[in-house]
Amino acid sequence: MLHTKRVFTHHLNTRHRLISLAVASACAALVAPAFAQDASNGASNGVASPNDPAVTAPVQGVATNTVVVKGIRASMQSTLNLKRNSDGIVDGIVADDIGKFPDTNLAESLQRISGVSIDRSRGEGANVTVRGVGPDLNVVLLNGRQMPTASLADQAGRAFDFSNLASEAVSQIQVYKSARADTPPGGIGATLNIMTGRPLDLGSQASIGVKGVYDKSNNNLPGIDAGKKITPEVSGLYSTTWNDGMFGLAVTGSYQSRNLGVNQAAITNGWLGPYKGNTVSDDPGPIPANGAGVTNPPKASDIYLTPQNLSYFVRGSQRQRTNGQLTFQFRPVKELTTTLDYTYAQNKIQTKYHELSVWFNHPLNAQTSSWTNGPLASPIYYEEQVKNQDLAMNGGNFATKSTLDSIGFNTQWRASPALRLSLDMHHSQAKAEKDSPFGSNNDLATVTFSRNTTGVDFTQEMPILVIPGGANYQASPNQVSGSWFQDGLNKMKIDQIQAGGSLKLFESSNLNFGLSHTKVNNHSVFQQVQRDTWAGGTSNNAGVDYDQSLWHADTISQYFSKLGGSGDPRLYNQFMLFDFAKVRDNAIKVTGDQAGYTPSLANPSFDRTTIEKTKALYMQFNTDWDTALPMHTGIGFRYEKTDVASTGLAKLPVGVRWISQNELPVDFGNQVFQTQHGKYSNFLPTVDWDMDVRSDLKVRASYGVSIGRPRYDQIQGGTTYSSTAGVTGVTGSSGNPALTPVKSKNLDLSTEWYYTKQSMVSLGLFHKDLSDYAGQTVVTSPSPTALTPVGGAYWKAAIASGCVATDTNCMRDYILKNFNGQPGVTSKGINGEGHYTGTITGVPGDPALPYQITTYINQKKASLKGAEVNWQHMFSNGLGFQANYTYVKSDLKYDNLGTGNQFALVGLSNSANLVGIYEDDKWSVRLAYNWRGEFLANVADNGKPNPQYVEPYGQTDLSIGYNVNKNLSVSLEAINLTDSTQRTHGRSDQQVLQVTTGGPRYMLGARYKF
Predict the structure, then answer these.
(1) How far apart are CA 512 and CA 528, in angstroms?
(2) Of 22, 481, 533, 539, which is the most buried if we count CB atoms within 10 A?
(3) What is the pLDDT at residue 73?
């Protein structure tokens, strides 16, 4: 039997307070809404859907004398009810007042949620990982709309950068951990919906906030790289309605400036290897196989790696973030609401850095080392006895700018008591580009060629550079050696239209339905201008050609004083700083090569555009069941069809020239754009079930199928070919637009005990079976434009004469001797070894040049499982706490003793949060500790098959607020209060990759509400 859904008083109290504001804000962004029914008929408890309409009227049945909580307690209460009243597994964060989100950075707030971990950039949260699923496989919505993302750091990724958005205009963030039919797919880990306030919900109000920011890391920089010590933050909100609520207008804006420093000791170019203990090779990397100069050498069956280089960076950044939103609403009758909104976000970052570095060449007859025990051996100390090598003092000066523009229109219409309809459309664009004449990234190397014996000690927290003889700048003055300047552009546009509705059926059921069309256009261009004068420099008389007053000495240890090893007396401590612009000008004067030091997109190394067009429809049937224990079910599906067109700039081979024994350079024609196509469709079912075991105890189960779309470099158009071919053909690489998304079958179980209005204990279990991860394969095909002499008439004649195909000297000698002067054959005589020299090219009738193209196919599988435990409790005396722990496990792990390419899940880590709270009428205090366990960040390091592990990291934050009166409040915030540092290593803890320092950040602010 069907019945009216039971809604308990504490549900309604929360709705009546802040949750109604937060949920109402979704009214401007319905994708294809799954409309919740009124509490009186209770057809759906899905109040947390990103596509639900506004709940604008007060909820009936709430006692007028109920005590209304506010502040942090209200936020916690609203967050609990967001979770409790949802279909499926949903968590979130609700602001206790518009403009007062818990953290100034949205990602920092999200990490407080169980199962959510963040990746930091410049000491600030940027990307999120949910339940072990990385940033590329999570989807971010703004008011229910799919948002574009652009990044010069990763032009091929889909990860949303939360550092571009300020939190002042955000009313809540919803995190959907289970699959939903009514949300755009792509979030295997989660779909995250950022919601902002709307004027018809906010009413008439205004506020302004100011802060002074002091980032202590900015003090840990040379003066030439540092910014001002105190930077401002300003935010404001104005909302008004008129004509009895027919019209509404809201404006929010914020400007935030921050100066910071990030210093790093790093093996920048990674570790060479892995090698077996008995490896014999003349190539740089292995240690002497005979054990000469080696203490405790690796055994024959052990594997080991050696460092490529060592660098110390001091990097200063200055960031200006500007956000704004303008929203207009029109409600001519209570059944019809239209919303027009515009959102703008800009993030500008200027960076200056200096670097001290050395490069190891691994001479077999001039090195000593000592090693840990196997089977995975790591160097304890490594040293090379060299003479007059370069000691590099590099510098960089560049800037980037990221912008987000989004304009959208939404209308919602209650056509009848049983039928609601909505239409939503938006055009949004994200763009990342250079903001400096020096490009989006660069490196200018200056050197002295006076470095002799050089070693590195790996026994401490940071690697210790040891140069016993120091450097002699009088004998070898400073000069510019190599350099590179990058320019890039990444732009993504999304045009989306979504229509939907909800139809009430019977007494306690409803049918939600919707259609959508989404077009995503991702365009990226990149070029690096590089001068490869690393070894010899740019001058034979540096003391004359380069103004030595442009450099000045400093010490390096002071910038790493918080790291173990910085006080080691062996540490080479001299550090040369310079003015980047002036030294660059000096280098241009010396070399006469203006273009070599100027970024440009005139001849890009890649220029690619991918267009994805997706049509979708969904339906979901929700029912409340009148059983002994009240139950709710939701059964639905989403069907999507996607067409992909990917265009890339490519140079096509037009021929090969066989010029020596094993060297066949490829000749290329002009650059052309190549377009490749692909398409795929997915049927994605979802099932949600929950039951009220008691009025305060709920159990849930959810099953659904979700997808995560491929990275853009995996589906890019165009093919990149090697510049040199072999007798078997030419290699190349290409994307595969026909690559299908990763698919995940998800099962979630949850038990939730809401024992007071603001207190809860819950246990959640989850399991994901993932398939169709991208792997690589080689496809062989004949060239339509290039011929090869290999296998042609001349080749066959050489074989007939008795030459063996593998003896390419014999083959060339026969052809050049017997066919010289004929088409495609030009002999230049005989060399000192008695072999003919000259060129042999393909001629008509010869075979087509074989292409051996490495591309992507769907082939990898994985699974993960885990558990989440949450406990939130508020005492009657104003004290309270939040605690959660997430455990994630996968059987697919990286084998540190393996020697080839491997597939493993990245980002998989356990995490925990502990937050202490105190609040009364005047004070609010929150002390929060976040911890993330060690995780695999990458399965490759600088193109080599070596892992990158980020070590466990914990951070403590503090916020204190004081209400001076009902209008004025002041606050103090401290981020990274304990000055935590972060370390990354390779196959073992001793194989350090990076040790990064930041610093605490303090913010003193005031907010006035009119």
Answers:
(1) 51
(2) 22
(3) 82
Q: How confident is the model at residue 603 (pLDDT cuts 50, 70, 90)?
A: confident
Neighbours of 566 (CB within 10 A): 21
Find all residues with CB under 8 Å of 258, minimum gap 6, and list them: 213, 215, 231, 318, 319, 321, 1001
**Tokens coding 956:** 């403590």
Q: Are 383 and 363 in contact (CB under 8 A)?
A: no
Q: Are 528 and 486 in contact (CB under 8 A)?
A: yes
User: Are the beta carbons of 914 and 242 closer than 8 angstroms?
Assistant: no
What distance lies between CA 457 and its chain's CA centroid?
32
* H or E element in which residue 592 lies: none
For residue 435, the one-letter residue type is D
Q: Which of 258, 266, 371, 379 is nearest to 319 (CA)?
A: 258
Mean pLDDT, the chain, rounded, equals 89
Q: Which residue has the tokens 């934050």?
A: 957
* Residue-wise DSSP of 303-316: EEEEE-EEEEEEEE
Q: Say how many CA atoms lie within 13 Å of 932 toward its Cβ.
A: 31
* Other beta carbons within 10 Å of 219: 12
Lowest mean pLDDT among 28-32, 125-129, 256-260, 508-512: 28-32
Q: What pLDDT does 247 receive?
A: 97
The DSSP call for residue 588 is H
- With H, G, I as helix, E, B as strand and everything else as coil, classify residue 318: strand
d(CA 180, CA 706): 8
686: nearest Cα among 706, 657, 656: 706
Supply the pLDDT for residue 499. Answer: 96
- The pLDDT of 245-254, averaged and rounded, is 96
Question: Which residues have a Cβ under 8 Å from the Cβ of 592 and sit 6 or more positions away?
Answer: none
Mean pLDDT of 399-413: 96
User: Which amino acid is present at 506?
Assistant: F
In 3-state terms, what secondary structure has residue 538?
A: coil
Look at residue 844 in the predicted model and tell me its pLDDT. Answer: 94
C-alpha distances in Å from residue 405, one per residue of 147, 149, 346, 426: 10, 11, 9, 10
Q: What's the whole-number mean pLDDT along residues 178-185? A: 88
What pLDDT is stored for residue 944 in this prediction?
Answer: 87
For the chain, the first-to-last Cα distance in angstroms comes to 52
Q: Is 916 helix (H, G, I), strand (E, B) or coil?
A: strand
CA 915, 920, 921: angle at the middle one, nearest 5? 140
Number of alpha carbons in the 13 Å side-chain half-sphere of residue 430? 24
Q: What order of strands is seen across the sheet that includes strand 367-371? A: 294-295, 367-371, 379-384, 454-457, 464-466
Average pLDDT over residues 296-319: 95
pLDDT of residue 16: 35
Q: What letters, b where the CB count within 10 A reaches 16 and e where it falls short, cover 946-955? A: bbbbbbebeb
Residue 142's closest CA among 323, 320, 15?
Answer: 323
- Averaged pLDDT, 370-399: 95
At residue 4, the pLDDT reads 33
